Amino acid sequence: MSVLVLGARGDGAAGEGAETALASVRFGSATLFAGEAAGEGCAGALAAAGVALTSTDEIQTDVRVVLASLDSGTDRIAALFASPEAAALRKILYAGPVISEADRADAVALFALSDMLIFTQSDFATFFELERAPCSIEDMLVVRKVLTRPNQAAVVMLEAQGAIAIWAERWMQSAAFATAASEGASEALSAECFCGVVAACVDQGIGPEAALRFANAAISMLAGEGQSVPERTAIEALLGDLPVG
Q1: At CA 16, angle to CA 22 and CA 26, rounded to 5?
Q2: How far is C-alpha 34 from the geometric centre of its chain's CA atoms?
Q3: How far apart are CA 197 and CA 214, in angstroms?
Q4: CATH number of the domain to which 213 belongs
Q5: Mean pLDDT in each 10-residue stretch from start to end of the chain (245 residues)?
Q6: What contacts 194, CB < 8 A, 6 or more positions away?
Q7: How far is CA 49 from CA 12, 33, 53, 204, in A?
Q8: Which of the 8 DSSP states describes residue 87?
């Protein structure tokens, strides 16, 4: 099985989604990247890590999971997610970054096509028109009004509080890992890393509780824009050395 990551295309889009693809392949899933690498260095890093670059959005026979962010383009995501070839796949939407009201409106239409929605706190507040970023499960239960598919889940990244996953009838929280490295990581890099690890876990049949734990541990190891995503062996070592807190 494998993961197809949709990266952004067009002017100024080079490199968007590349860290997501790296996170997926470094966690052990065969990964295809349908996007534009940011120069030869980025393309070389992806190839060296084992990411296969593709110039089309064609779904290959071994793909099990498709992951897209709004940077990929809402029309493009909708066409792929709604295609007959994607019907049996697990479709994950990173609902960010949200820049304008138009972004929000276009993205909401994708929710019904997605099996899992992933939000940062700030993007969640924008989508659901909250006065502040959500901090508790009570703040986030509003997402249930858009969960219309069987077993559809929404995941909210809560920075220092870890992440919460919500389904129509249940929810669970996975605590963060506090490390010195994680304090320097940007929200964008953390989100790409988190999404890539979660997608790889879905591809490998790893359950949601373990998936969030792996993803939270991975982003705690980031040290800023210059630091790439960690290997699965390093994540597992961290899980063995640090308590959740």
Answers
A1: 5
A2: 15
A3: 7
A4: 3.40.1190.20
A5: 84 69 95 74 78 87 94 92 95 85 82 96 90 90 94 91 94 79 70 96 95 93 71 91 47
A6: 23, 118, 157, 163, 215, 216, 218, 219
A7: 24, 12, 11, 18
A8: T
- Domain extent at residue 109: 2-241
Say if CB 62 and CB 86 are below 8 A apart.
Answer: no
Q: How many DSSP H helices and E strands does the chain contain?
A: 9, 9
Query: Domain total for the chain?
Result: 1
- The 3-state DSSP class for residue 222 equals coil
**Structure tokens that stand for 201 in this block:** 């876990």
Burial (Cβ within 10 Å: 0-12, 13-18, ≥19) of residue 88: exposed
pLDDT digits (tens, 9 = 90+) for 93-122: 999 877 677 777 888 899 999 999 999 999
Residue-by-residue DSSP string for 28-40: T-EEEEES--SHH
Q: What is the pTM of this model?
A: 0.91
127, 93 in Cβ contact below 8 A?
no
